[in-house]
Amino acid sequence: MTDEPLNLTGQLLVAMPGMGDARFDHSVIFITAHSEKGAMGLMVNKPAPDLRLSDVLDRLLEGPGPSDAGLGVHIGGPVETGRGFVLHSDEYASVIETLKVTPGFALTATLDILEDIAAGSGPGKALMMLGYAGWGPGQLEDEIARNGWLTCAAVSELVFDLADEKKWGAALNSIGIDPLGLSAAAGRA
Length: 189
Prior knowledge:
Family: Belongs to the UPF0301 (AlgH) family.
CATH topology: VC0467-like
Number of domains: 1
Number of helices: 5
Structural class: alpha+beta
Organism: Sulfitobacter aestuariivivens
Protein name: UPF0301 protein H9Q16_10920
Helix content: 10-25%
């Protein structure tokens, strides 16, 4: 039997009710990196209120905005909330730097992806995030062991295509769990 470390890169974390951190209530987080040094992820179902990609582009770029000015911006997590990330389909690669996370998913954090999105030459599917969720060594594993999170496979349709408010339930359904059956409180026999 091998004692390989847990690697959740490219997986989804699904917040359990009552996990104790309101910032992650009903969140679904795509894990972009996970190793013995810690983990990083992006919430894929928490839209930033009243903020659109066109607003971000207006501040950063000169010239016309994107063809889809209504594309929303998500709260990626509580760490470095002024830093932007684009989680996207893997057919696109920045000329500067793109991290291929797993088949179907890539991450770019350079300005050129926003320029490409504005020009209509960006990735086919994308979510713009501000901030990220981060865990130190062993912290995520501990939170999972304390039933703060469930894990499931990340599929493009769930991450990119579903409405934000449906992603949490869909992620739970993907592992055979009915969200209505979950409780925030522990019971007593």
